[in-house]
Amino acid sequence: MVEFSTVAIGVLLSLELGYFVKAVVYAFGSRFLLPKLHPLEASRLYGICTTRDIDFLLNHINNARYLRAMDFGRVDHFTRARLLSGLGGKKVQVLVAASTIRYRKPVYLFMPYRLESQIVYWDERNLYYRQNFETIHDNFLRATAYVKLTVLGSSPDELLTACLSESPERPTIPNDLESWMLYVKQNSENLKKKL
Fold first, then answer.
1. Domain ranges across the chain
2. Distance CA 100, CA 61 (A)
3. Which region, left, alpha or beta, applies to residue 116 given φ > 0 means left and ψ of -120 to 50 means alpha?
4. What confidence tens digit (pLDDT) does each residue in 70-86 have?
5. 3-state helix/strand/coil string of 106-130
6. Class of the CATH-defined domain 34-194
7. DSSP-assigned states of every residue in the chain
8. For the residues 188-195, what does the mean pLDDT come to?
9. Each residue of 110-138: b (16+ CB within 10 Å) or e?
10. Which residues partner with 122 through β-bridges?
11. Kindly report the CA angle at 97 between 95 and 103, in degrees rounded to 5?
């Protein structure tokens, strides 16, 4: 018979324990150790490319790891900006509906980087984040991304108003974001036609 400890270790390893530990550390640090942010202000997280992040060439961050780091960046921003705190017991979900990323230059093994996350626009249903990866030694923009978050059970205006006590003015939409939003809309319409 297999011992309980062997099964427990197998389960922990299959769940990628490091990811969950990192999520708890970031959430705790964002909530209790880092200063509060204005919701439209950029948050910054710092990281380093480790052996757990590299791709099969063994020298730079795997493309999927950028997306995972971006998750941590948005959690940090949401937590520090207290975006969900003013809604009381209301059940609100914020889900990634779409994302796009442009890789300009690799982040190599053991290279420290800064991830900046900021809400740059919103509409009736969605928040739009810009997230940038810059290497610290040269401040070079290595990758840039937009992420569309759909708000369920509330609206972006309600989220922002609840934590600001006033309704913020919607910013001008960046040109590149507007083009990407048009692509996402056209793509959705094409997919609906196929159903």
1. 34-194
2. 17
3. beta
4. 999 999 999 999 887 76
5. CCECCCEEEEEEEEEEECCCEEEEE
6. alpha beta
7. ---HHHHHHHHHHHTTHHHHHHHHHHHHIIIIISPP--TTSPEEEEEE--TTTB-TTSSBB-HHHHHHHHHHHHHHHHHHTTTTGGGTT---EEEEEEEEEEE-S--BTT-EEEEEEEEEEE-SSEEEEEEEEEETTT--EEEEEEEEEEEESS-HHHHHHHHHSSPPPPPPPPHHHHHHHHHHHHHHHHHHHH-
8. 87
9. ebebebbbbbbbbeeebbbbbbbbbbeee
10. 127
11. 115
Tokens 């942010």 belong to residue: 37
Q: Which amino acid is at 173?
A: I
CA–CA gap between residue 69 and residue 77 (Å, rounded): 12
pTM over 0.90, yes/no: no
Among 161, 178, 175, which Cα is nearest to 39's? Answer: 161
